[in-house]
Hints:
Elements (H helix, E strand, L loop, with lengths): L2 H12 L2 H4 L4 E12 L11 E15 L3 H15 L7 H4 L4 E6 L5 E15 L5 E3 L21 E3 L2 E4 L1
Antiparallel strand pairs: 1-2, 2-4, 3-4, 4-5, 6-7
Amino acid sequence: MRKHDALRAALTTAFPDLTRDPQALSIYIDKGRIAGRAGPGGTHRTTGFEWRYTVNAVLLDFAGDPNRLAATVLEWIRTTQPERLQNHTAGDEAFSFEVDILDDDKADIAITIALDEAVDIAADGTMSYRNEPDIDPPFDGVPRETALDAITLGGAGLLP
Length: 160
């Protein structure tokens, strides 16, 4: 499992104060399970598996901007677990949180994110993590920032 380390890096990059006090940020995993399947052709050898788990990030005495925290976590999800943002159902539950307001400037915040990580097993037994799909794959020759103005099919406008 490696995504929990990436979450820690994203949070400490966005909020450097979290590195100054080792107690300020705690990350742990629970509700872990493994999903596995038989190999191709009905063989009993698995050709991969998935780690499925919940990662929890607890920020103590957090005095940063909560909007920036939410944006940081959502951007991290976009790059590490993009399917959580690709439809309304999953996007509606991108992550959950709990807040204990300590005073006007500080709060303890717990963030919970359901994750999975696919591991492929090659014929020689070598294991590697599968790359996450690009949430926004570009069309060949079209810059990412190009806006979609209309959709046509056979010359007829489907969307204005």
